[in-house]
Amino acid sequence: MTPADPLAQLRDIHLPDPISAWPPGPGWWLLAGLLLLMLALLAAWLWRQHRANAWRRQAQRALLAAHQRWQDDGDSAAYLQAANAVLKRAALSRFPREQVAALNSQRWDDFLDQQWHKPAPASFRELGFATRAYEARPASTDIEQLHSLCRQWLAQLRAAPC
pTM for the whole thing? Predict the structure, then answer.
């Protein structure tokens, strides 16, 4: 018997198993924990902001309902009274009661005008908002312009700090 080729008896090179990605190292666990903590804090902050602005969403819905009633029946006096009540409730939710509760007439208009954080598109006082709100037959009032002004006032008003 002749010996076979010795090179034929060699086995092929065996590579080790590839390195597994699992379980991750301690640094990755730390990074994942920090990421989860940051997401939890962000979610908590967003929830607080959502709850802090509930008064604004409620006021916007009430103002829209009053506008819809005005479009259906054309009663300007009812719209003016409803819009005034909505803005007063919103202001009471946002500002101290002592600062807002006793305001009426031109002082109420002035207060509304002072709360703009940017240049006002119009003035509540120029439109005679507070004085017309309690007239039995209000003088001709541009309800569409007033409604737009009320919506913008509510939208730009900041929530009280959490």
Answer: 0.72
